[in-house]
Predict the structure.
Amino acid sequence: MMTPVLDPVDVVVAGGGIGGLSTAYALARSGRSVSVLERSPEFTEVGAGLQMAPNATRILREWGLLDEVCEAGVAPQRLLFKDVLDGGELTRLDLDDEFVRRYGAPYIVIHRSDLLTILARACERAGVKLVADCDVQDVETDRDGVTVRSALGDHRALLAVGADGLRSRLRAKLSDDEPICSGYVAYRGAFPVADLGPKIGEDALRQVVFYIGPGCHMVRYPLRRGEIFNTVAVFKSPAYERGEEDWGGPCELDAVFSGACDEVREGLGSLWRDRRWAMFDRLPIPNWVDGRLVLTGDAAHPMLQYLAQGACQAIEDAACLAAELHDAPPPDWAEAVKRYEAERTERTARVQTTARLWGDIWHVDGVARTLRNELFRTRDLHDYKYIDWLYA
Ligand SMILES: Cc1cc2nc3c(=O)[nH]c(=O)nc-3n(C[C@H](O)[C@H](O)[C@H](O)COP(=O)(O)OP(=O)(O)OC[C@H]3O[C@@H](n4cnc5c(N)ncnc54)[C@H](O)[C@@H]3O)c2cc1C
């Protein structure tokens, strides 16, 4: 057995992404001592923008972080849906005063690294120990707590939180399921607006635009007070469908989007072409708890990104776990984490399955596309019934 490298704490969090840092901060501000073990050398993330709906920004406000988040991000005026092929407007969701009143908080878009920096600083202020370069290898639970085995040694705590993402090592202790590949791949890009030139008009800097179409879509929005412009292009890879090993390359990207409208084809020039992200999710599981080990974020409920909710749900997890542990003395924690599991599994399962369905609706072709477009175009712009369950 290796010697413990850190003083025992109440909670060890494995993984320092948005989910891990949110959990650490939520627990620390309710008086728990917390360490976060992150295998990367830094607490940062490659990637571009992140949309944060009011179900998450409400929590950030409760945590006293919303002002910083708003200052680092952008509050867009609307979510605008267009057809990827003809560029015609389909529907929109105004993110105006009525929206903010209804859901109690704004819709914000922010660079991932800005959000992670805000969370990491908040953690440090709250006394969380952030340990980088620390690969978590295993967790052993016993009656009194957990031993977290890592590359740096053993860590003793009352509770371990698996926040180690889609390919979670700790989830494997609870479930033998594997990530499911959707055959879709994402290209991202975030560039200074000044470098993209006059093609990025004033309107583009005030909205999130979704271009949806047969087997593909593109999303574009501003970041960092409008200084950066974010583009994500996603498509179903024909090479994946054919069973080829090397799939989703830049040639496929160009070919799939070759019939798209001018705005979208122009957007292809705002992507990083040297990296891409294959899209995976998993099916919901009912069990996130093994004694003193509990899962959160993508480790618990990885989802396709179509509802822009993965990180938002991880923030909800964090608030829920902290609330359940708040008044519970450590001997009652096993029950408290079971209450967390009961409260979170049903909701996140619905978000996971709805995200798949929403993606299917975006990607239809032929008659289904004509019908979808007609339904979107005739939608009452003040109809919130499809989002109340998610944002309220
Ligand atoms: C293209 C795309 C767009 C998206 N857009 C949105 C959006 O707009 N809004 C939204 O809410 N969500 C969005 N998501 C989803 C969101 O990115 C994820 O749900 C969220 O980042 C999950 O956070 P997490 O902390 O649970 O996992 P991760 O971000 O995967 O973090 C896991 C962390 O654990 C670390 N780790 C892994 N294994 C170990 C180990 N053994 N030991 C120590 N550390 C370990 C990793 O290095 C990583 O830092 C999007 C996803 C994609 C792919």
About this structure: The mean pLDDT is 96. The pocket of flavin-adenine dinucleotide is lined by residues 14-20, 37-40, 50-51, 135-136, 163-166, 169, 186, 232, 277, 297-298, 305, 308-312, 314 (CB under 6 Å). The longest strand covers residues 180-192.
